[in-house]
Design goal:
Distance between the termini: 28 Å
Order of helices and strands: HHHHHHHHHEEHHHHHEEE
Number of helices: 14
Largest sheet: 3 strands, antiparallel
Helix content: 40-55%
Strand order of the largest sheet: 3-4-5
Strand content: 5-15%
């Protein structure tokens, strides 16, 4: 059985040989990290193999086939602006909210204040970790590759939180899926750093036919890291299925009181729903802990001092305790008699006095 995220963080926090950490399986993210500078066959990388235009920068024209290491990117990290951690807070209530959305904001702040405080605490820890990447020894394009993906995770999680606060539950789901992909991308990046280097060498050139600056797509998707981590896998599948135009989730969002006899449709429903709020904010908390876990593994890129690492471990323990509370809405995977993996919503209710439901999708 794999260790828990908390146990893995304790291991990372206690020090030890960085190379050993990079070559052992990561208990929290599931990726097997290799020592820096090693290469994988092109077919195992998250993006396409190096294009011919960069072969002259990597060695012979068949550099991809010969698996020669790709040189470090030509860019230098010329600046890194990170928000002040001590003053960081989630945005306040927007002006002009509809009555239902304003009530959702009020009830979320009252009933889920502990979640909001933990989300803000995780954000401040992330910012304190991220800023260590701009120390002279860590200020490399490898660090920038991690920090760039991390920045998108950070924004996605807190934009999703703001949507939940105003009752826009379904609108938060694509942002959570995006956050999962970017956390997994960081977890798998040690094995696929050559894909980033190849993109960096070919990016920002001139494309004569369109008279444009060619940044390039740099296709990269870390599916293995998602599949290998139980939390990332569950959230990714559920957020994807709930966010798509599937009929069951659509009915839960727009006709929450529907039954086999009636379908009371609420167009653009923004009324407070405790079940959705607990579920989605719980996912934000879980993904915030995962992001901290991944960052703690990158000692070379983010050389955080030991007291900060200890704070991260303590924070993850608080998150785990909060998510394990009885009566909290959560989602489980249920495998039926036909071996179909289905979503089971547990303790699903609109208001605290309502009877809890179990919803199978």
């Amino acid at each position: 059985m794999p260790r828990s995220t908390l146990a893995a963080l304790r291991s990372d926090s206690s020090g030890g040989n960085g190379a050993t950490n990079r070559t052992a399986p990561c208990a929290g993210c599931g990726s097997r990290q290799r020592a820096r500078g090693s290469t994988l066959p092109a077919r195992h990388r998250g993006g396409p193999p190096p294009v011919r235009d960069v072969a002259r920068m990597t060695g012979p024209r068949d550099a991809a086939e010969s698996e020669m290491p790709i040189l470090d990117p030509p860019q230098r990290v010329s600046g890194m602006r990170v928000p002040d951690a001590e003053g960081w807070r989630l945005p306040g209530k927007p002006a002009g909210l509809a009555p239902d959305a304003e009530d959702a904001w009020r009830q979320t702040g009252f009933l889920l204040s502990d979640d909001i405080q933990l989300i803000e605490a995780a954000a401040r820890l992330q910012l304190r970790l991220a800023v260590t990447g701009y120390t002279p020894a860590a200020r490399t394009m490898t660090m920038a590759a991690y920090a760039s993906l991390w920045s998108r995770t950070f924004s996605s999680l807190h934009d999703a939180t703001s949507l939940v606060q105003r009752g826009a539950y379904q609108s938060a789901l694509p942002l959570l899926r995006m956050a999962v992909e970017h956390i997994a991308a960081q977890a798998q990046l040690p094995d696929e750093l050559d894909a980033f280097k190849a993109w960096a060498h070919s990016a920002y050139g001139h494309h004569a036919p369109t008279r444009s600056e060619e940044v390039g797509l740099g296709h990269y998707f870390a599916g293995e890291a998602i599949a290998a981590d139980e939390h990332l896998r569950l959230i990714y599948r559920a957020a994807s299925d709930l966010g798509r135009p599937n009929f069951g989730p659509t009915a839960l969002f727009v006709a929450a009181e529907a039954s086999h006899q009636r379908y009371p449709l609420m167009f653009d429903d923004a009324a407070f729903h405790l079940g959705w709020a607990q579920l989605i904010l719980g996912w934000v908390l879980r993904l915030g802990a995962k992001q901290l876990h991944v960052a703690m593994h990158q000692r070379e890129q983010f050389p955080a001092p030991q007291p900060l690492r200890d704070e991260v471990v303590a924070h993850v323990a608080r998150v785990d305790a909060g998510l394990a509370e009885d009566g909290r809405c959560h989602l489980e995977e249920f495998v039926d008699d036909e071996a179909r993996r289905r979503h089971l919503l547990v303790d699903f209710r609109r208001q605290p006095p309502d009877a809890a439901k179990r919803i199978l999708l």
